[in-house]
Amino acid sequence: MAANPIKMDQLKQVLSLHQQGKSIKAIARLTGIARNTIRGYLRRGQANECNPLLDNDKELAAALYNQDSSTYKSKAYQCLLLHFEGIEQELARPGVTRLLLWREYREQHPDGYEYSQYCYYLKAFLRNKDVSMHLEYRAAEQIMIDFAGKKQYYIDSTSKERISCEVFVATLPFSGLIFCYAVPSQKTADFLECCNQMLRYFGGSPQTILCDNLSTAVTRSDKYEPVFTDLCYQLSEHYGTTFSATRPYEPRDKAMVEKAVRIVYQNVYAPLRKHTFHSLAELNHHFLQQLERLNKLPYKGSSFSRQDLFLAEEQPLLKTLPSAPLCLKKGTVLTVQRNYHIQLREDGLYYSVPWQYAGQKVKVWYDHRSVEIYHDHQRIAWHPRSVNGRGYTTLGEHMPPNHQAMAARKGWTQEGLLSKAYRIGPCVGSVAEKILGNSVYMEQNYKSCYGMLMLEKRYGSQRLEAACQLALTGMRINYTMIKNILHCGKDKQVRIPNDTPLPSHTNIRGPQQYQ
User: Fold this and answer.
1) What is the reported pLDDT for 125?
2) Strand (E) or helix (H) holding 198
């Protein structure tokens, strides 16, 4: 293996002393350099006619150092470099060792390097390949999140069991502000709780949230277009941000949060190592206390702390948070019916979507406040959740043009017809719902429902309610069935309770007559 080259200043001194007529022995005594090394440099200097007073450092290095690098320019070394191409992937395979690779190399090059030299050059090769890039971060651009590898624990006060918990860590790369929070697991509900608490602690949302490819956030990892879970899309819409993921097996993409995890170990875990906690709430309370100390601690060699930098330059740029944290919505996949409505099976309510999506699969997210309908991750409809427990919720813009024209010409709407039906009676309202959902031709549904309601003028509200009560016992309900029941008088067989009190009369005896 070639000796390390001497410094440029020493090399110039050697050449100058030689020009002054000093012997090699005297030069070695004055500079502390071995005589054979001096002879080699002087020999190369004479061959290249070097002048330390006229030549610059670059010219001297090209003339005098290149021979020291002959090992690197040799044919054997060039073969070794060719062998090293793609060696990172080989070393990543199970069971592949450097010794195995060296043996394969010697089979191809019997006169090649020995194992020690092979490892030396391999280490240098990998070091040159594995360089890091300094990244600049902009204020409020992103939050990096991760779960710490080391768990925390608390003692259940009832069972005295030692229960482990995950620790969520987040940081703003620009200011370095750190947040951590303990949760029972990495499941969806706990991940949602972590994100809500994190954004509440930071007091705003960034442009993007960067995570690794954990299953709670990413359903399909990809270097360019990862697919995120429905929870991430809900978080993005609620907080006005986006999610992005690191490249698979590239932890340096989120180097700042990797560093933040180590800082949490040192400044949160370590100070609390002798404490015993009896609940998650108690553990998170002490976490918060340690975070306040950590974020107020000045940076080394600076008077500014993470919190100072955050408050001065980053917090004003964060997006304002909504008034309430995100509540996890229920999700289901439904098929749009031919009458361009979807039905929530949970309560039997119908909600309209644009008629063009009839027959297609849609994703429905709903809670007690709203119903959101998505197609290919695009929201196509939004409705307030119905609270009356029955009926259709239809928006006029969701109807096709001919349906809109018919409704405008007749003045009929589902809401109006159902409202009028339920004013007559509950059974009439139920029949109206079924008639309106009978077929894809909405104008025909309107006609049938309207005709059924018009029977009230001929037969009265009580008989119409009785006829509808009788019709509800059948399988299929339409206008003709209600009309026939009334025409034949079958509705009279249904007893309709009459709450009208009897008028007072002298011929009516009271209960006192039977004592």
Assistant:
1) 81
2) helix 188-202
Beta strands 341-344; 152-155: pairing state: unpaired
pLDDT digits 0-9 by tens, 434-462 = 888 776 667 778 888 888 888 998 899 99
Closest by CA to 362, choosing from 350, 344, 374, is 374
The residue type found at 145 is I
Q: Please, are residues 309 and 137 in contact by the beta-carbon 8 Å criterion?
A: no
- Packing angle between helix 57-64 and helix 8-19, nearest 10 degrees? 80
CA nearest 287: which of 266, 306, 269?
269
Write the pLDDT tens digit of every residue in 244-303. Answer: 988 887 777 788 899 999 999 999 999 999 999 999 999 999 999 999 999 999 988 888
For 57-85, how does the pLDDT look when each residue is reduced to its tens digit (9 = 90+)?
666 666 666 544 444 446 788 888 888 88
Here the tokens at position 380 are: 């196509």
pTM score: 0.52
H helix intervals, 411-441? 414-424, 426-436
Instruction: Give strand pairing partners of 170.
Output: 145, 179
Please provide the DSSP assignment of 437-503 as one string: TS-S-HHHHHHHHHHHHHHHHHH-HHHHHHHHHHHTTSS---HHHHHHHHHHTGGGGSPPP--PPPP
